[in-house]
Amino acid sequence: MMDDQALLRYSRQIMLPEVDIEGQERLQSAHALIVGAGGLGSPVALYLAAAGVGSITIADADHVELSNLQRQIAHQQASIGGNKARSAQASMQALNPHCRVIALDQHIAGGALERLVASVDVVLDCTDRFSSRYAINAASQMTGVPLVSGAAIRFSGQLAVFDPRRADCPCYACLYPPDDSGDEALSCSESGVMAPLVGLIGCFQAVEAFKLLSGAGTAHQGLSTFDGLSGQWRHFQVPRDPACPVCASLR
């Protein structure tokens, strides 16, 4: 049960009929996993903490650099040299001390990643490498935990939600077959990225996680892409691949 302070803190969400007290209580009892505390992970972490998600695990082995501060808003000048997950944890708890935040300052892979994903209600992929995205997707498919995937580079961003609980929903490998992912080296450090773009895509990821956890609305389906130079969104339907090496054998 929420006390008077919690009712006041989340009052602007509770007054939404699609959320109400029941939806807010679902948020408070939920556990989200954010993999990556950089440009995408920063707005995701801050907004989910502010919105009242009860438990959030955030994982990142990297350290804050000066060049990160242009877009990674969970970190401050004083964070330089510190671990990103722990820096984000401090920002999240300063924003909402009632949110339980677990910082993992190491790379999580293999069985450890699968066990971690199995322990949460939603996983948000805020990484920037195909190898990480494939690993997170595989863990999501194996455990049946919904995955909210985002990406941003230069002036372009995209978002997709992969929910293994839906029989007709594709997975990340359906959209990007492993044999086609030869662009591993594409990164913000080499290609650049517009600062507000990662905020926009990260906020989109937070919106989808909010809906999945609270029960409000309907989760995003298909793939949405955003062109920051023209300001245009495009949406594509993405069918399941019956020959997908990841999800075909699990359905």
From TrEMBL:
THIF-type NAD/FAD binding fold domain residues: 10-246
CDD domains named in the record: ThiF_MoeB_HesA_family (cd00757)
InterPro entries from the UniProt entry: ThiF/MoeB/HesA, ThiF_NAD_FAD-bd, Ubiquitin-activating_enz
Keyword Nucleotide-binding among record annotations: no
Keyword Cytoplasm in annotation: no
Molecular function terms from GO: nucleotidyltransferase activity
Alphabetically ordered keywords of this record: Nucleotidyltransferase, Transferase
Pfam family, one: ThiF
Database matches in Gene3D superfamilies: NAD(P)-binding Rossmann-like Domain
Protein name: Molybdopterin-synthase adenylyltransferase MoeB
Source organism of this protein record: Halomonas casei
Lineage summary: Bacteria, Pseudomonadati, Pseudomonadota, Gammaproteobacteria, Oceanospirillales
Recorded name of the encoding gene: moeB
